[in-house]
Design brief:
Number of strands of chain B: 21
Number of domains of chain A: 3
CATH class of chain B: Mainly Beta
CATH architecture of chain B: Beta Barrel
Strand order of the largest sheet of chain B: 1-4-5-7-8-9-10-13-14-15-16-18-19-21
Order of helices and strands of chain A: HEEEHEEHEEEEEEHEEEHEEEEEEEH
Largest interface: A-B, 62 and 67 residues
Shape of chain A: globular
Largest sheet of chain B: 14 strands, antiparallel, barrel
Structural class of chain A: mainly beta
Distance between the termini of chain A: 109 Å
Distance between the termini of chain B: 23 Å
Strand content of chain B: 35-45%
Strand content of chain A: 25-35%
Number of strands of chain A: 21
Helix content of chain B: under 10%
Helix content of chain A: 10-25%
Radius of gyration of chain B: 27 Å
Oligomer: heterodimer
Number of helices of chain A: 6
Chain lengths: 427, 526
């Protein structure tokens, strides 16, 4: 009997133990996790959308990011407003505002200030030219339209002559030695330009406003779009939004006709440097100059000839390394020289080569591992450095150049070599 | 008669000398599930409670002094266990995911962001529950012998897991596990590394003083070290590299010391001490890259020095078992043998798979040092590591055996093992809960060809009490800092606001489950 009592008591105790649940901590409150509340996508700009929980979120930067979400959710997903959605969506709740001329601000500069920077006299209009050559920057810092484009004395936009507004694809290929882990690195810089060709005195002048710049690595067989190579440097918007308008001019240009050729003078462009002689690359300040005369940065030393041209608070021009380069930055100084050797194809198309050379120095970076002494030369494949121009409406803007660039087969569509797109007259 | 005591003293002296010599170079060795189940069928059937009384070679582990208390014997074993344990993760808010825009954000340079998270969708494995369900099987053998010396026993046993003799895996108990399994793991019970186990031991109960018996044993395993040299000729050819490896393995031993006293013929007291144990694995790697040198920097004279990428000091500690001190008492009367034992478990010295203490692994020590850099955007929570130090515990085992006929005995056993793991409301998730064991054993004795044989069956039912853990968000590091800026625009990233983490334990989890174990053996008395 005693044994039975013992068994019963033990069993009851065991049952009691079975029923025990231990709880550690307290349930969290989602509203206290610090997320940004929202009611619509517009509240989450830039880089986000308003999710079903009423918080700003982000799933993607581009459609390629949605591939992994497709594996989970199925369907054919695209990136819209930083959210992976079905391809058939009509794109409502778009968070981006319509662009209004009233919102176009600019940084006015006097011709004297432009000369100090070795820029063109109208460099103060730089911020407005993305919207078209008819815009200029007022002293109050707002872009205003002149309702016409200045093509020079007595000139207007033409349909069968050089004068007009053109969309330009401009590529420069280079080979860099001294890059770690590889014998050399080939890169091509793609420039999208809104070009005004005008007559000034006896000169035919090609003024090109920089709409966009992009660097791509390439091998003999392949060109890697941004993000496809294991690591690469990219050109951020502050860089290409603060480079000089290009000027290529020639006093002796053949009359406009298919087959006519021309060669411009050399345009010398300093980037983040102050020099006396634009043709003397030895004047470009290097890393030693930076470390001895410009640190600590920012400096007020008059001996320092390095500027913050891109306005990001860092010395020189800033590039960003992505992929295996861990979003680290490099700072560089540069003197760049280029000329155009063009051939007229037809009324609306011009093509040619871009002989170019430059002197540049990496003066610093966000990480010492990003700073190397590189030797950069124009790529031996000369037909990788080329330009193509297509005639556009007088009031065309950078968006029009973009549209042409993105259309496969378009005259402005990027190809590794000039000859990869046939002349329109050959079709 | 005089020769036997001399021989006994010589044997004992030799044994002590060997044990002392080995003690100079011994290091901890692991035992996996057998610390819990027991090393043979008799132990399984008695809830591994053989501290004051015992009748099989598994006493090498519980109290080696008991070997002198039963006739020499040997046997072969078959053991298995089948867990049914689960760690269920709570749903996490969608905004806790690290988004792709993380790749386009400035969060500090390499030195301040060594442990960068991956976008959650890109993790190798999605966060998921853990189900520990795989059955494991073992065969073994053991025995004891007196070598002709009264009161002396030499004993040994070996257990082999089937089919793999060695199987190991490690994990991180915090957000670092996102890069690997992205699951939580049981820290103490259920997820063991099945590795071949062995023990050797001796005991001696002096015939003239035989109410005392002394015993010592060594649990035998291996420790390993490995280094690999890697050369990558081309960083762009991701799947092409050359390598060589160096590996060394050594025996490691865990000492177990026991004493048993029988002040009366119906009572016994047992005392056992065991050193801590774990499987120690050291790893190192060196990588040589083509055309990779130190950047110019200030040390221009070292400009052309090749820069090797070295990865040193990967130390692992698997299946840690704490130091134990056990005191037992037993009673033998009228066919009943009842015993109980209390064990002090020194869990406060616990080491995780990566050779860290729980209190260190809870504190973001690696991140704090980096966050002091000028441009670091990380603000790791300040954690008091003492809150996460494992606690000392007292576990209890007990059994009652009833010899109801000369040739049969039934045993009931019970064990209770409280959890040493404090509340895991912060960075780490050492998953554990209280565990209890109910055991049933049956022994049959029989004779065959004039020799005494026996066969035994043992069954165990293990129960883990349910434990629910909620994380405190203030103790979880924000892996996508709120101050992150877009690399292009230098503007703030709205989706960085708030807590983003790939810590698999966030926002919480529940652990529960049970396990059955069984064993069978056949043996013979010599």
């Amino acid at each position: 009997m005693k044994r039975l009592h013992l068994i019963i008591i033990t069993s009851l105790l065991a049952l009691l133990a079975f029923g025990c649940t231990t709880t550690d901590g307290e349930e969290y409150d989602p509203s206290k996790l610090g997320y940004t509340t929202c009611e619509r996508n517009r509240d989450c700009q830039p880089y986000g959308f308003c999710n079903d929980d009423g918080f700003c979120a982000s799933e993607c930067r581009e459609t390629a990011d949605c591939w992994l979400f497709e594996q989970q959710r199925g369907g054919d997903l695209v990136c819209l407003n930083y959210q992976c959605v079905e391809f058939s969506t009509d794109g409502d709740d778009d968070g981006t505002d319509d662009d209004s001329p009233l919102d176009w601000t600019c940084r006015p500069k006097t011709p004297e200030e432009c000369e100090t920077m070795h820029w063109l006299p109208f460099c103060g209009d730089r911020d407005c030219l993305d919207h078209g050559w008819q815009y200029s920057c007022s002293s109050s810092g707002q872009c205003i339209s002149d309702d016409s484009v200045d093509f020079g004395e007595g000139q207007s936009a033409t349909t069968d002559d050089y004068y007009g507004v053109w969309g330009t694809l401009f590529t420069t290929a280079a080979r860099s030695e001294g890059v770690p882990l590889v014998p050399y690195q080939d890169t091509v810089t793609i420039h999208l330009l809104l070009t005004r060709v005008s007559k000034q005195g006896d000169q035919t002048v090609f003024h090109s406003n920089m709409c966009y710049m992009e660097m791509r690595n390439f091998t003999e067989d392949e060109v890697f779009a941004v993000g496809e190579d294991i690591g690469q440097l990219i050109i951020p918007p502050p860089y290409y939004e603060n480079v000089s308008t290009l000027e290529h001019k020639t006093a002796s240009i053949a009359p406009y006709a298919p087959g006519a050729t021309f060669e411009t003078d050399t345009f010398h462009e300093p980037r983040s440097v102050l020099v006396d002689d634009l043709t003397d690359d030895d004047e470009v300040p290097d890393r030693t100059h930076y470390e001895e005369l410009c640190t600590p940065w920012p400096t007020s030393s008059e001996d320092c000839r390095i500027t913050d041209q891109d306005g990001d608070g860092l010395p020189g021009m800033t590039n960003v390394g992505i992929g295996a380069l861990n979003n680290q930055s490099t700072y560089s100084t540069q003197m760049w020289h280029s000329k155009l050797e063009g051939t007229v194809v037809d009324n609306d198309h011009i093509r040619g080569f871009v002989p170019n050379w430059n002197r540049q120095y990496q003066i610093g970076g966000s990480n010492p591992n990003m700073v190397y002494d590189l030797v950069v030369q124009m790529h031996p494949d000369v037909d990788r450095s080329y330009f193509r121009m297509v005639r556009m409406d007088e009031f065309a803007d950078c968006d029009d150049v973009w549209a042409a660039y993105e259309e496969e087969g378009n005259w402005l569509y990027f190809t590794p070599f000039l000859g990869d797109i046939e002349d329109p007259t050959a079709k | 008669m005089q020769r036997r005591p001399k021989m006994a003293i010589r044997c004992l002296a030799l044994t002590v000398a060997v044990m002392a010599a080995t003690a100079l170079w011994m290091s901890p060795a692991m035992a996996g599930p057998f610390k819990w189940l027991g090393y043979d069928t008799a132990a399984v059937g008695s809830a591994n409670s053989q501290v004051s009384y015992g009748s099989s070679y598994s006493v090498l582990a519980t109290n080696p002094a008991l070997m002198s208390r039963f006739a020499p014997r040997g046997g072969i074993e078959f053991l298995f266990y089948k867990p049914q344990l689960s760690i269920e993760l709570m749903d996490r808010p969608a905004n806790a995911d690290v988004p792709f825009v993380f790749y386009s954000s400035k969060i500090g340079d390499a030195t301040t962001s060594k442990d960068r998270a991956l976008p959650t969708i890109e993790l190798k494995n999605a966060r998921s529950n853990t189900d520990v369900e795989e059955a494991r099987y073992f065969i073994g053998a053991g025995g004891t012998h007196n070598l002709g010396i009264k009161g002396f026993r030499l004993g040994g046993l070996i257990l082999l897991p089937l089919p793999d003799q060695v199987s190991m895996s490690t994990y991180f108990p915090n957000e670092q596990e996102q890069y690997f399994s992205n699951k939580l793991h049981m820290v103490r019970f259920g997820e063991w590394s099945p590795i071949v186990s062995g023990m050797l031991g001796v005991s001696y109960a002096p015939p003239s003083f035989n109410y005392l018996s002394f015993g010592a044993a060594l649990a035998i395993s291996v420790s390993a070290s490995a280094s690999m040299d890697l050369y990558m000729p081309s960083i762009q050819a991701e799947d092409y590299a050359k390598s060589n490896m160096n590996m060394a393995m050594a025996l490691s031993l865990r000492p177990i010391i026991g004493i048993q006293a029988e002040p009366t013929d119906w009572m016994a007291i047992g005392l056992t001490w065991k050193l801590w144990s774990y499987m120690d694995v050291d790893g190192a790697g060196n990588m040589l890259l083509w055309n990779y040198r130190k950047p110019p920097g200030a040390e221009t004279e070292s400009r052309w020095e090749p820069k090797r990428v070295s990865q040193e000091d990967h130390d692992y500690a698997l299946d840690y078992e704490p130091m134990e001190l056990t005191l037992g008492i037993g009673f033998d009367f009228s066919g009943w043998e009842i015993q109980a034992a209390v064990t002090w478990n020194h869990w406060s010295a616990y080491l995780n798979n990566h050779h860290e203490s729980p209190q260190d692994s809870a504190q973001y020590l690696d991140v704090i040092a980096d966050s002091e850099a000028e441009d670091s955007m990380y603000t790791p929570p300040v954690i008091d590591g003492d809150d996460y130090k494992f606690k000392e515990t007292f576990s209890v085992t007990a059994s009652a055996s009833w010899q109801y006929v000369d040739w049969a005995k039934t045993t009931l056993g019970f064990g209770y093992y409280p959890s040493p793991v404090p509340a895991q409301d912060g960075r780490t998730s050492y998953v554990d809960s209280d565990v209890m064991n109910f055991a049933l054993g049956q022994r049959f004795d029989f004779k065959l060809f004039g020799s005494k044989f026996y066969t035994q069956l043992g069954l165990q039912f293990w129960y883990m009490t349910e434990r629910v853990t909620y994380k405190d968000p203030s103790k979880i590091i924000d892996e996508f800092p709120d101050e992150a800026e877009h690399i292009f625009e230098g503007t703030a990233v709205p989706s960085a606001k708030g807590l983003q983490t790939n810590n698999p334990g966030f926002p919480g989890y529940t652990v529960s489950g049970w396990m059955i174990a069984g064993a069978a053996n056949v043996g013979m008395e010599f």
